[in-house]
Amino acid sequence: MPFLGTRYAPGKTLLLTSKYPDHCFRIMVWGLMAALLLSLGGCSQPWNDPNSLEKPGETVYYGSYSSRPQHFDPARSYSSDETVFIDQIYEAPYRYHFLKRPYVLEPALAEAMPKVTYFDKQMQPVTVDNSTLAFSVYTIHLKKGVMYQPHPALANDKWGNALYLFSTPEQSAQYATLYDFPESGTRELVADDFIYQIKRLSDPKNKSPLLGFLSNYIVGMSDFSEQVMEKDRSGWLDLRTINLEGIQAVDDHTLTIRIKGLYPQFTYWMAMHFFAPVPWEADRFYHNPGFIDRNLTLDWFPLGTGAFMMTRNDPNRGIVLERNPNYRLDLFPSDGGSDAGKAMPFIDKATFRLEKESLPQWSKFMQGWYDRSGDDTHNISSSNFDRAFVVSGDGLELSEEMQSKGITVSTEIKPSIFYYGFNMKDPVVGGYTEDKRKLRRAINIALNTEEFLEIFANGRGLPAMGPIPPGIPGYVEGKAGINPYIYDWVNGKPKRKSIEHAKRLLDEAGYPNGRNKATGKPLILYLDTTGGSAGSVADWRRRQLEKLGVQLEYRSTDYARFRQKMRAGNTQLFSWGWLADYPDPENFLFLLSSSQTSEACQCDGSNTSNYMNPMFDQLFDQMKTMENSPEREAIITKMVELVRRDGPWMDGYHVKEYYLNNSWVSNTQRHGIARDTLKYLKLDTAQRLRKQQQWNTPVVWPALVTFAAVLLLIWPAMRAYRQRQTLRVNPKNTEGGHC
Amino acid sequence: MFAYIVRRLFYTIPILIGVNLITFFLFFVVNSPADVARAHLGEKYVTQQAIDNWVAEKGYDRPLMFNSHAPGTDKITDTIFFQKSLGLFTFDFGQADDGRDITTDVLTRMGPSLALAVPSFIIGIWVNICVALVVVMFRCTQLDKAAVALFVSLMSISGLFYIIGGQYLVATVWRLVPISGFEPGWMAWKFLVLPVVIGVVSGIGLGARWYRTLFLEAADQDFARTARAKGVSELGVLFRHVLPNAMLPILTGVVVVIPALFMGSLLMEAFFGIPGLGSYMLDAIRAQDFAIVRTMVFVGSVLYIFGLILTDISYTLADPRVRLN
């Protein structure tokens, strides 16, 4: 029976046989030697290089992502781990200036910022402040000569007919992925491509998350949705054949979009990939029979006009973007230092690898195999954060180890807010009377945000003074910007009011020492959570409230149940967060508008606290249609004051993230809103190569010592075995048995 | 034997229906179709209309198990359970709820899983058997006791420690191999060396100790003593007489695992960046993708049953006395 014994024929091959079983050890010895020789074979470059060989002269960026993207369809994708890719590929009419803060829009595919005209119901022109205003019309002039990336959907034969159109799945069976198509083509971008994409947004089959929202604004969108669903959807439906009333192409390079009423923030939406053009040929191509069974879909293989195109899409392993050879002339911002006025992108290729665990990701960054600590997220775990940063008088600074490697840091305060919300309908913590306000303030003071950030987030956050984060108009720094109900201004910085103050407030609210003045019963608060009631954060919260004599109970549930409770308003305390879509205070203040409660909108309302203040609503209706101006800021100040006074949110903070960059990467500024920043990155590949070789010299002696140790173990074993083989039978011990 | 195998294959049908029922029940007792729709449509700006459209398009607008409004057999067939689960028996897995073809995904991810699992499995068994036989050879000595103590120690260490420790030492401190990653084809070797070695080393404690116990039972049987009396070397006794006679319990534990190798390893693949099937189902549960969950549970059940049948067949090969009737 051939099993495990070994026979070695000198000068020939190693054979497995049972004839000489006592050679079992030798297989291990030779195996180890072979492994060592194999390893030694690649001495010319570091052995631990995980990256593929680059083409000579090619500038390749190496990055990572931590969760697998789900969608690359610009109509559907709405997640930051997807936008980090598709925003390099798709371009919208507008984009954010890379360097300017506060965030500023600038034309991308459009020639200039849109011209907005206003009309009444009879489509007669009116001024913006006219009460009969019914429609706003955005006229967008497009850049000429913008070409799509090479793509088989645009490949034509010499008569102009599409090369890759099939009537049965069998005809295209040889094309397993998009990269199997030998031919590709391109064409110029025209206004109809924007219309086609807006029609795709309107088609329920594409499951755009914005369909319901945009239907409230774009004229004719709802009708279009109904019409397409009545059609036969078994194959490709040419959306060009159905009219969408509010969108018109004036000529090949001019487009108009008519929206209902006044909505100045609409321009921000036109800076998102939802409004990126999609050629109708792409939609037709991806509806070829059998393509969907091979995952050949627009949701998986994008087609855009941006600086990069996707040349490998294996999201479980890696994603590769390469320079789009047809990309238009796009210059680095004129106020951008030494790179000002230079053509972008600065890199030829970007290779991203999926890293689910932070340990290998961090190790590779420190070894120089990744250019930055992260792309979609910072990827600096708490333990690594302590290694990377030290606390100094001026706050956090890079540790000596990082500085010795030349690593730089880029910070980003996300236009976001995370908070604990009170359900304003709750009989205990809700309500608008002064005693209820005092109760909420007392709880807010006790849940010390600064301490929370210090203990659990390495200080990576900025305590919120109101609903508007830094970088957004309406945010006020310094003494004038603090929440006076929770903080005092002491020695030039905000200081949280004392627990004694909180106890006084609690007393005035009718709960002296945490007990109901009338009934004597202890005040028990209920926090709805999906995270369970155990763990250090949960204990910390309990302890904070115990300082007031208030008890905290957790009502833990799964996420689906939690969402149901939120919709039904069946909570008391809960945690929530919001990441802005665009940098306008309206995108934060609407979270507290009474029209956004689940009950009012009959949807998953954004006003999770069920905050309803008529004064706030009135001011919100006033400010939401205004351009940024001192008058608008004055209204926002009033609204923020109302929120601070009523206190529907507490313990809020704005996330501040730290990203690390290896020394050979430049132009690493983070942009809180935009993700199309890959084209600005610059690499010094010669320096990278030098550092990689310097940092990754293999340490061979432990392997040799291990090998020698194994040999040392084998040798006495073999010796003992040989001795045993020569032993004579001891007549005194012939019984056998184990021992 | 053929009749036995056919009978066993028929037994699988009610088992698989039962597995499907339990999966279906567990999934939808936690999530309603609307919850699943919300998970796919995202958090922001989701309208009831969008949820209804999603639910209708995916066919989740039917009753779960019984359609009281439908006529005749449609009461059973026009339900989510029947419509979504019947196709599995023809191995038509359809599309995931995010629109991707599940069969293509499974086939694509199976390769890397096997590239890691097969060498770990084969080398692991080989090493465990070799080590166990060597220890048995020195049974009743101090070396035997030390080896057992070592095995227990190795068993007591968490698998995660082997992974993190191995990565730290070999890839970070000594920089001998890449810490994680994967390349298709032969270039995969440099990414697989470390996880395979860690997989083998972390399994030695449990495997070798178990095999040692099995071999000890056989090592003092009459046939082994007779072989020694005839002058067969101790290694010859162990490999040619003890090992074949201890095969049945070994096969019981080993063969059933072989089909499951296709399913990959969650921890190893996550830490070593192997793009395999290990996390496919976990990711699907997180994304509330019922199409993938039911497929992977179904495939897992089929492979497990297949493994059990293979085990029975392997008995007949290892021991001619065994007959499958």
Taking the alpha carbons of the first and last residues of chain A, their distance comes to 30 Å
What is the domain total for the residues of chain A? 3
CATH C-level class of the largest domain in chain A is: Alpha Beta
Low-pLDDT residue intervals, each spanning 5 or more residues of chain B: none
* Assembly state (oligomeric): heterodimer
What structural class should be given to the helix and strand makeup of chain B? mainly alpha
What CATH architecture of the largest domain in chain A do you see? Alpha-Beta Complex
Radius of gyration of chain A: 32 Å
What CATH calls the topology of the largest domain in chain A is Dipeptide-binding Protein, domain 1
Structural shape of chain A = globular
In short:
With about 750 residues, chain A is of the alpha+beta class. Chain B is an all-alpha fold and about 325 residues long.
Please provide a written account of the structure.
The complex is a heterodimer of chains A (739) and B (325). Chain A is α+β, with helices and mostly antiparallel strands. Chain A folds into 3 domains: 79 residues; 244 residues, Dipeptide-binding Protein, Domain 1 (Dipeptide-binding Protein, domain 1), CATH 3.90.76.10; 242 residues, Dipeptide-binding Protein, Domain 3 (Dipeptide-binding Protein, domain 3). Helix content of chain A is 28%, strand content 18%. In chain A, strands 16, 17, 18, 21, 22, 23 and 24 form a 7-stranded mixed beta sheet that branches. In chain A, strand 14 and strand 15 form a beta hairpin. In chain A, helix 18 runs antiparallel to helix 19. The radius of gyration of chain A is 32 Å and the shape is globular. Chain A starts with 5 loop residues before the first strand and ends in a 14-residue tail after the last helix. With 325 residues, chain B is mostly helical. Chain B has 15 helices and no strands. In chain B, helix 12 packs antiparallel against helix 15 and helix 14 runs antiparallel to helix 15. The N and C termini of chain B lie close together (6 Å). The model of chain B has no long low-confidence stretch (mean pLDDT 89). The interface between A and B is large, with 78 and 85 residues.
